[in-house]
């Protein structure tokens, strides 16, 4: 599983990263996590509002910080 956290590196982006790591730990899942801060790369994925979460090259959320339970639910669906 490949996960991307999209955003410029702000406080909200960091919180989304931490919540994602917590969700993975809770589920006992292993995944690679990539932080993407390049605006061209973010726009290429069709994201106009950050932070955003991408699971296996599919944008699953943008413009808000998901809590770890919401992320766990999305991870199980992926």
Descriptive overview:
The chain has 78 residues and is of the alpha+beta class. It has one domain: Glutaredoxin (3-Layer(aba) Sandwich), CATH 3.40.30. 42% of the residues lie in helices and 24% in strands. The protein contains three helices and four strands; from the N terminus they run βαβαββα. It has a four-stranded mixed beta sheet with strand order 2-1-3-4. The protein is globular, with a radius of gyration of 11 Å. The chain starts with a strand and ends with a helix. The mean pLDDT is 96.
Short overview:
With 78 residues, the chain is an alpha+beta fold.
- The value of Rg in angstroms is 11 Å
Unreliable runs: none
Task: Give helix and strand order, one letter per element, not per position.
Answer: EHEHEEH
The CATH homologous superfamily is termed Glutaredoxin
Sheet-strand content, in percent, reads 15-25%
Could you state the oligomeric state of the chains shown? single chain
CATH topology: Glutaredoxin
CATH architecture: 3-Layer(aba) Sandwich
Number of helical runs?
3
**Classification by helices and strands:** alpha+beta
- Taking all residues together, what is the mean pLDDT? 96
The main pleated sheet reads as: 4 strands, mixed
How would you write the strand order of the largest sheet?
A: 2-1-3-4
Compute the separation of the termini in Å. 8 Å
- How many domains, in number, for the residues? 1
Number of strands: 4
The portion of residues assigned to helices is: 40-55%
| The level-1 CATH class | Alpha Beta
Instruction: Name the shape in a single word.
Output: globular
Domain Thioredoxin-like fold: 1-75
InterPro entries: Thioredoxin-like_fold, Thioredoxin-like_sf, THIRX-like_proc
Protein name: Thioredoxin-like fold domain-containing protein
Pfam family, one: Thioredoxin_3
């Amino acid at each position: 599983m490949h996960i991307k956290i999209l955003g410029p590196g702000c406080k909200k982006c960091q919180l989304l990263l931490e919540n994602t790591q917590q969700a993975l730990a809770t589920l006992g899942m292993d995944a690679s996590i990539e932080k993407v801060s390049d605006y061209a790369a973010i726009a290429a994925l069709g994201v106009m509002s950050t932070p955003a979460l991408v699971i296996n090259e599919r944008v699953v959320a943008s413009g808000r910080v998901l809590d770890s339970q919401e992320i766990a639910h999305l991870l199980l669906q992926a």
